[in-house]
Write a structure and sequence with these properties.
By secondary structure, this protein is of the alpha+beta class. It has helices at residues 19-22, 49-61; strands spanning 2-8, 28-33, 38-43, 68-73, 76-80. The radius of gyration is 12 Å and the shape is globular. The protein starts with a strand and ends with a strand.
Length: 82
Amino acid sequence: YKVQLITVEYHNPSNRRYDGVRNLGLDLETEYIEEKGWTRVLMGAFSSEAKAKAALDSARTNGFTRAFIVEYKDGQRKRRVR
């Protein structure tokens, strides 16, 4: 599981908007959506939905109110969970 924070057209990894979640000690990663030219900004790789939910709550508290959980299996994006 991963928490998708935001999807942006122009990603700047040093943008201050990410400071709150960076301070949680979780890694941020990106996925480029080639067909749309946008970038997904994601947080973590969680072994359970419960752990992802805790991170989701923290992300929402830190300004990413529209963040959600995505299930990944074998490195492939499967479905939006919540």
